[in-house]
């Protein structure tokens, strides 16, 4: 799947069929989790094939508007600590895994556990369960799709998130076209973020893309969003032959956090 197309059509599903997930898909996801956990020490995953355990444990405590999402299976993400880089990796690797799930023709939905008490988390996820802030529900979706065109209004335009040399300096579409990044920036606007805050700002500096985050009262949540957008940018860059990786910086700069640099 072309990543730019995937992101522009990205959807989150809240209703799932009461249907077991195909065994080959289950094994593929388990193998992919093992691969991801070899890449990082800051996050780990727990796979719950029998989704009723998680659904019943979180019913009335998590979900949307107090309604827990019922799905055939769930994956819990455990974050090592609350350091900034761990928050970045939470978004990066959770969305990396989510993309693999969707590539298996499954549907998925992130669920935050903000209002779930520590005792419930320990009962469900073990002694280290207090470090679980997110679970992914997945299966074969039915019903209304989210992130459809009518629900993606309010997205920033490119001139609001992409700049030259410093935030606030305009960069032309022609210049972005020359670098091959025009389509990437046009698509990355559709990356999901908490409350649609879209905290990311990109600055073109010579042959580098520097990523900034707009600070807020929810910086930890925004850092997770930044990890998501970093993943999508890397994947889309591969489609134009740029196989770089973000170099993490995490440097405070007044209203912004200088997060990372991508060398072109």
UniProtKB/TrEMBL annotation:
Transmembrane segments: none annotated. Pfam families: TM1586_NiRdase (PF14512). InterPro entries: Nitroreductase-like, TM1586_NiRdase. Residues 6-237 form the Putative nitroreductase TM1586 domain. This is Nitroreductase. It comes from Peptoniphilus stercorisuis.
């Amino acid at each position: 799947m072309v990543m730019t197309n995937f992101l522009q059509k990205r959807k989150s599903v809240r209703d799932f069929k009461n249907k077991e997930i195909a065994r080959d898909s289950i094994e593929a996801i388990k193998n992919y989790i093992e691969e991801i956990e070899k890449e990082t020490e800051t996050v780990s995953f727990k796979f719950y094939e029998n989704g009723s355990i998680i659904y019943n444990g979180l019913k009335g405590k998590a979900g949307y508007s107090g309604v827990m999402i019922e799905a055939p299976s769930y994956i819990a993400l455990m974050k090592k600590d609350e350091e900034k880089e761990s928050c970045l990796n939470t978004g990066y690797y959770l969305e990396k895994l989510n993309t693999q799930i969707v590539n298996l023709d499954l549907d998925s939905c992130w669920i935050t556990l903000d209002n779930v008490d520590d005792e419930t988390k320990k009962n469900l996820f073990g002694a280290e369960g207090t470090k679980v802030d997110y679970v992914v529900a997945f299966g074969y979706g039915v019903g209304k799709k989210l992130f459809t065109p009518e629900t993606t209004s309010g997205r920033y335009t490119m001139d609001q998130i992409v700049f030259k040399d410093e935030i606030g300096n305009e960069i032309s579409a022609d210049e972005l076209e020359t670098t091959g990044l025009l389509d990437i920036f046009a698509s990355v606007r559709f990356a999901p973020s908490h409350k649609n805050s879209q905290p990311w700002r990109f600055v073109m500096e010579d042959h580098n893309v520097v990523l900034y985050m707009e600070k807020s009262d929810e910086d930890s949540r925004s850092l997770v969003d930044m990890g998501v957008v970093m993943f999508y940018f890397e994947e889309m860059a591969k489609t134009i032959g740029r196989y770089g990786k973000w170099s993490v910086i995490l440097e405070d700069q007044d209203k912004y956090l200088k997060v990372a640099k991508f060398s072109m």
